[in-house]
Design brief:
- Strands 7-22-23-21-20-17-18-19 form an eight-stranded mixed β-sheet, sandwiched between helices. Strands 10-9-8-11-12-13-14 form a seven-stranded mixed β-sheet.
- It is built from ten helices and 23 strands.
- Helix 1 crosses helix 10 and helix 8 runs parallel beside helix 9.
- With about 425 residues, the chain is of the alpha/beta class.
Length: about 425
Amino acid sequence: MNHDGLDRGDTCEVVVEKAIYRGLGLARHQGQVVLVRRGLPGDRARVRVEKAGRGFVEAGIDAVLAAAPRRSSPCPLFARCGGCAYQDVDYARQLELKQAILRESLLRAGAPWEGDIELHASPESGWRTRATLHLGPLPDGGTGLGLHQPGSHRLVDLSVCEQLTPLLQRTQRALLDGLRDHPHRARVQHIHLAQGLAEDGVVAVLDGDLDPPSAASFASLGRSVPWLSGLGAVCSRGPFVSLNGSPYVHSTVLGHRFRVHARAFFQGNGFLVEELARTVSELLPAGGTVLDLYAGVGLFSLTQAPHAEAVVAVEGNAHAAADALANARSAGLSHVQVRRGELLESLRRIPARTEERIVLDPPRTGAGPRVVEAIVRRGPAAVVYVSCDPPTLGRDLVLFGRAGLVPDSVHVFDLFPDTFHLETVVRLTARSGL
């Protein structure tokens, strides 16, 4: 029980003041913060509390009493599906909201940015080339493949999806058809899909409570979807198992061909990946040694290589590190080294170079104090930070700022249109006079 204010199940009327990260609108009721799922600035709504936290509550909308401007969503599943947060908002307004959300997140963290933010827009549909979908029972007793309803684990079957490329949309429906009557279907909880930018092949990876024998029973699934170039499985008590074809897709970015394992990270927006790589390259001063931290398959390492004397890519994931090495070798880039290992240990082993340039592309959890400290000790000429999470970006910018590394350029890439996600690219350089 929350004796200081609203509790779970309570209803109240609120007015949303502003949009904040994760698709929430911030409102207040008698001084208590109410975070409204899918609430837009200007909405007056009756909401029902779903979760009571310390000092705030999270709520869903029971009824919109006076609505901020909205459009009719292009997707019939939007009201039920948790894949999009802003699909009922005009796209130009979405970009404005995301810019405001980034500024609010940085201000809240103690790293305000009042300068310009360069926005990079994406087409709204058919942009997603990588996806993880959930497989499970539907309320009518059937089997579905899709995403969860907002704030729940109830599955919404993706009969259509505006995000997916047409090929991925067709693939996920074909896989669902092939899985419905499979004797081990219940062992599969997720399907990962990856499509390359260089050809039309798709790799699917089954994930769940699988062991090698049960995984092997799905091999025929790959043969039943003719355009599937590879099928694999993640076993709960063993390694990745390749069942059919190749586990790799291929993409060409700024003239460089990348081999990407289906379980290695690669940017999922097929329209903006070149623009992202080009921007990171342009923000880094030419010359010197580039350290590419959390390098993945070498996207930034290879695209920066023509402008650097040497590049060292550091990656902990075995699949991604192997891809990065193969990609550097196939491109004939002998001055690109790939180091696989834990990041902090790798940084201790790599000698710092004068005027080092650093690309930092951490996971959603951000870099954190120990990584920031290790970077600062190296005395870099510039750091280009690629972030997929504004709150952890703000936290890390505070840490860099204390050491005299401050932003001088900020870009927002809308790699995830209609969703609450946004990608931020920030260049950090030494504060003058330090």
